[in-house]
Amino acid sequence: MLKVENLTKDYGSVRAVDDLSFDVEPGRVTGFLGPNGAGKSTTMRMMLGLDRPTSGRATIDGHPYAELENPLRQVGALLDARWVHPNRSARSHLRWLAVSNGLPVGRVDEVLEMVGLTSVAKKRAGGFSLGMSQRLGLAGAMLGDPHTLMFDEPVNGLDPEGIVWIRNFMRQLAREGRTVLVSSHLLTEMSLTADHLVVIGQGRLITSCSVGEFTASARTTVRVRTPEPQRLHDALVTAGLAPRPEADAQGRPVVAIDDVTTDRVGDVAGDAGIRLHELAAHTASLEEAFMAITAGSVQYQGGTTATPYAGPPVAAPPHSATPLAGPPVAGPPFAGPPPSASIPHPIPQQPPQAGSPQTPSAPFDGGPR
Ligand SMILES: Nc1ncnc2c1ncn2[C@@H]1O[C@H](COP(=O)(O)OP(=O)(O)OP(=O)(O)O)[C@@H](O)[C@H]1O
C-alpha cells in the first residue's frame, strides 16, 4: 500500500504539491489524474525518494522509499522510458540494471519475455520506437518482481495497439494483487484502465473515488428552447428550479436547468401554457466532467467558464479545490444568452517552463542506489 500524507513541495515560490493526502490500495489500478502541471510527477518523485518534500511524507508499505531494504524488490517505476544508454542492447541494459541492484541475472530473460521483447533483446535500445522503449522500461520496473508499481504517463505518444497492450499489462499486475499507480492527464484512457481515481489540480486533492462513482456523478442538464424564454424562466423559478440563460450552437436563446428531468421541465412549461421548440437532457461525458471538475485548477486557463458540474464525492472538505454545485438557487431574470455557450474548453497544454523537469533525469527504476 502507498500512503501520501500531507505532502507539500515548494520550488521557490511555486507550490507544486499542496498538502496532498491519499492512499493507493493493492489489487487494483489507481489512476493518478490531473491536468498538465497538476503535480503528478512531483508527487511520484517524492514517493520514490527522488525529491525531498517540503513537508509531509510518502510511504511504501509503511516506510519511506529511502528506508526500504531492497527497493527494487519492493517498488518498480517507469518515469521516463527514454532513460537508457542508446548503444546498449535491451538485454545488456537489463543485465546491467540487475547486476548493479543485486538482482538475479536470470530474471532478465523472464522480464523480456513478459513484455514481448525477446526477439529484439540483442538490438540497440537507442533504435527502439517509443512503444518498445516503454516495454523496456516496464521490463526494468519488473526486474525485482516488486509488489508496488508506479508508472508516469506510460501511454503518452503510443499508438492504439501499444495503449491497449500497456492497459492490459497494468490490469494484469493489479489482478496479481500488486499495488499499481499510474499517472495520466487523459480521463478517458484512465476510465478504461483504472479501478480507482485520485484526481489532483494545482497540487491539491480534488477527489479520490472509484471510476464508477466518478461516472455516476456526471451532471445532467436539461436545455429548453422556447420562443418565450423569460416566461419559462419565471415559471421555473416559481416552481423552485434554478434556470440560467444559455445559447445553442446557432446562437439561439436556451434555458438550461441542472439536475432535473425533462418530464418536470415539460410539466412546468405545460402548466404555464408556454410553447416549447426543443427539450433535451444532456449528461456530461466523462471528459467533460473531468474538465469541469479540474477547470479551476488548470494552470493556463482558456477564455470561458466550464459547465458547472456536481462533482464526484470529495474525499475531505479541506482538500476540495473545486467549487461544487450547491442546492438550487433562484437565478437572475433571463438576460438573453451569454456571448458564447458554456461548453467546456479542452484543457490547454502547459507551455514548457524553465526549470521544469519535462524528462526526469532519474533512472527509470526510480530508485537511488
Ligand atoms: N524542478 C522544478 N523546478 C521548478 N518548478 C517545478 C519543478 N518541477 C515541477 N515544477 C512545477 O511544479 C508544478 C507541477 O509539475 P509536475 O511536473 O509535477 O506536474 P504534472 O502533473 O506531472 O504535469 P505534466 O502532466 O505536465 O507532467 C508545475 O507548475 C511545474 O512547473
From TrEMBL:
It comes from the Bacteria. Gene3D superfamilies: P-loop containing nucleotide triphosphate hydrolases. Keywords: ATP-binding, Nucleotide-binding, Transport. Residues 309-369 are annotated as: Disordered. CDD domains: ABC_BcrA_bacitracin_resist. Residues 2-227 form the ABC transporter domain. GO terms for molecular function: ATP binding; ATP hydrolysis activity. Pfam families: ABC_tran. SMART domains: AAA (SM00382). Residues 325-351 have a biased composition (Pro residues). InterPro entries: AAA+_ATPase, ABC_transporter-like_ATP-bd, ABC_transporter-like_CS, P-loop_NTPase. The keyword ATP-binding applies. Belongs to the ABC transporter superfamily. This is ABC transporter ATP-binding protein. It comes from Gordonia desulfuricans.
